[in-house]
């Protein structure tokens, strides 16, 4: 065996069943070899749970205990299912079904529907929210966008808890669930929503599970057919199962007990969807003979990160907290988590962007850095700050890698080159190895070895192709002598498994979307009361779920972890925000926790920092102290007021314009059009999206203010020192009615 075969992306398939167990720690090995009877794996963050259960499946298959087609492994996201399929393939356990609950149920429903009901399965509704909106309109109830989202979520919760419309008000009262609006109104909309679906012959995502459960309950012959097919079950993230998913699992199992579940009650963060850790916590009660294995060796995070994570959970209360796992780091020591306080949200975003730029300069890949926030609406200010700093980023939740147009095109090009043959295709002349051949193929579509300047669509396309080039390099190193045709086959298998290569770029994601992921450096931002915990978390259990959500965020970090907050939302706003109560007793110099682990009322507003915090907001020191954008004393800012009516402004967009959204505009439309043309040309030249030059609101503010001097332009929110130096002369020329020296505007038509 050569050293090249040890590529982490392309490990050699184990030669024997016993070789599958190589490299597992004692607890992971106990999981992998427990092939009979019910098995419950309590696995803390970073302890290798996916490794343990995939090796268990592979060991069962390779040793002949499991037939691969008789195993069904289910999880909650397509990404997790794809990762599981990829790992099983690398372990030589092909033929095992690894799917989400919904995809497994849909597959069965499509197959058995003609026999159970007759005809074709109704199509899946493409936009559930649109049908909910129509149902509300029929009830003569007007819903804005946020209310529409809330009602849709309530309908989803009702369905996964198997609650019919007329029982909804009683069900939420029994569950202690906070209703976003009058339960009777929601029940009425829910009822009409179901009626509209029947009229149109469509089903929704939740119906897939409900109908599968109904078919298996009503048709014992079909249930028996499914049970003959699938005899061994593995359920990942078992703390997140809903009552409906648990019922489906029970119907799949029948009276058998060949079930392995894995989960962590301390990572239960989806109760708003109907998920509950009760099934995990009560597993031993339902299965007295169950083998229970605890995984607590943390291979992901440094002792410093693990210490903070353990400290966070040590203050938790409730049933899930009683079963918390005390993690033990297996990694070398690292820097202490950093804490940073800022005057306002833009300052926080700028500070984070600066630190990210420093980390990248020190050698940390952009793809190994993440900014995590509580709600998606917080992303915009970080997108802008990273764009201003010239740092590439990607939004978590965007289209899948293999569905990107440039990746699809790249695969077509590679297939064509593989069919032509490396020796006869002129575009591959001189390409001595596989990576060189791939680069030669991509060069026909503008690929270059060096990345384009800036960020945006051009850079995104380059990053996608760069990821494929790196994949080809790893593949060639692991499979000496591999051809283009072999790489095409590998890419096809990865596409089917959704096993994507790494794309360079800082990840921006919500804490919920970050579940199951990890990075070398993590920035947890916006950690203030009202955001963490979120303002609508009122009950003890809701507050504890918010704590668990922060725990998930902390445990995403391998080495660098920074937690930050801003004292006000906007520049000039009142500094009346408080750091999250969950940090009390953990961050240096903070007050101890009050009764119940949530911080006593008298202590929540107090902010103090221990030695080493001031003057070094980030690990390693050298960063601005709390509340500062740069060196020197913190600036005192006056509240922003509307220049038309005088009202104090709090919305970021209104602050940019220095007027209320509804107040009369003094827009110079001709200037606005010239600025838009100029911005488009700058964006094209820089290879960046237009907002990286100036956002729409900033451009509008410039066209309304028509600044004459640099000072007047700098006073407009969104300009900043960097952009003033880069674009100030151009903008001021346009405002004065002149053409910028470097600007070539569009030709004026004769009639103009």
Explained architecture:
With 752 residues, the protein is α/β, with parallel strands linked by helices. The chain has 29 helices and 16 strands. The chain has a six-stranded parallel β-sheet, with helices on both faces. Strands 11-16-15-12-14-13 form a six-stranded parallel β-sheet, sandwiched between helices. The N terminus and C terminus are likely disordered.
Tell me the major beta sheet.
6 strands, parallel
* Strand arrangement, major sheet: 3-2-6-7-1-8
Rg measurement, Å: 28 Å
Strand content: 5-15%
Low-confidence stretches: 1-7, 594-637, 743-752
| Strand runs, count | 16
**What form results from the Cα inertia axes?**
globular
Span from first to last CA?
Answer: 74 Å
Q: How many DSSP helices?
A: 29
Mean pLDDT: 82
Based on secondary structure, the structural category is alpha/beta
Percent in helix: 40-55%
In short:
With 752 residues, the protein is α/β, with parallel strands linked by helices.
Keywords:
752 residues; six-stranded parallel beta sheet; 29 helices
Task: List strands and helices in order, with pairings.
Elements: H1 17-20, H2 26-33, E1 39-43, H3 49-62, E2 71-75, H4 78-90, E3 97-100, H5 101-116, E4 123-124, H6 128-138, H7 145-160, H8 168-175, H9 183-200, E5 202-203, H10 205-218, H11 220-229, E6 232-235, H12 243-253, E7 259-263, H13 278-281, H14 283-286, E8 291-295, E9 297-298, H15 303-314, H16 319-322, E10 328-329, E11 338-342, H17 345-361, E12 369-373, H18 379-388, E13 393-395, H19 405-420, H20 434-443, H21 457-478, H22 484-497, E14 506-510, E15 519-524, H23 540-554, E16 557-566, H24 601-604, H25 652-657, H26 669-686, H27 696-705, H28 710-714, H29 720-735
Parallel strand pairs: 1-7, 1-8, 2-3, 2-6, 4-5, 6-7, 9-10, 11-16, 12-14, 12-15, 13-14, 15-16
Helix pairs in contact: 2-3, 5-10, 6-7, 6-9, 10-11, 10-12, 15-23, 17-18, 19-22, 20-21, 26-27
